């Protein structure tokens, strides 16, 4: 994977999580070069790489939060930020998806049961009126 090459050459990629939505993680990606310079935009990285005569290029960087790569920093109000690796974040996202599916299933089941109770009630009322 070309995106991993930058990390293998000493670059750091951090995603500062601002939320999680239906489309995945929301936040801001920041790359830090091996010399410690931070970048929030790909155009700035490309200029930096050209000046450094690096063998890395645009294809080695992505500012998409949806790509599971690097470290993730989750801000928790009133507490120290929590740092997640790719692996721990993948597990956390999987757990959230399972919980969401379970809640959605429970809601659908509740609607289904309610519908059938109402249908049975309507059927009994109809029988009484005949």
Describe this structure in words.
- Keywords: Membrane, Transmembrane, Transmembrane helix.
- This is MBD domain-containing protein.
- The protein is of the alpha+beta class and 130 residues long.
- The protein has helices at residues 2-8, 42-52, 86-129; strands spanning 12-21, 24-32, 38-39, 71-74, 82-84.
- It folds into 2 domains: 1-84, Methyl-cpg-binding Protein 2, Chain A (2-Layer Sandwich); 86-130.
- It contains 3 helices and 5 strands, in the order H-E-E-E-H-E-E-H.
- Strands 3-2-1-4-5 form a 5-stranded mixed β-sheet.
- The N and C termini lie far apart (72 Å).
Question: Topology of this structure?
Answer:
Blueprint: H1 2-8, E1 12-21, E2 24-32, E3 38-39, H2 42-52, E4 71-74, E5 82-84, H3 86-129
Parallel strand pairs: 1-4
Antiparallel strand pairs: 1-2, 2-3, 4-5
Brief rundown of the structure:
This protein has 130 residues and is of the alpha+beta class. Helices cover 48% and strands 22% of the residues. The protein folds into 2 domains: 1-84, Methyl-cpg-binding Protein 2, Chain A (2-Layer Sandwich), CATH 3.30.890; 86-130.
Largest sheet: 5 strands, mixed
In one word, what is the shape?
elongated
CATH topology (level 3) name of the largest domain: Methyl-cpg-binding Protein 2, Chain A
Radius of gyration: 25 Å
Please tag this protein with its features.
single chain, 130 residues, alpha+beta, Methyl-cpg-binding Protein 2, Chain A, 2 domains, 5-stranded mixed β-sheet, 3 helices, 22% strand, elongated, transmembrane helix, membrane, Methyl_CpG_DNA-bd, transmembrane
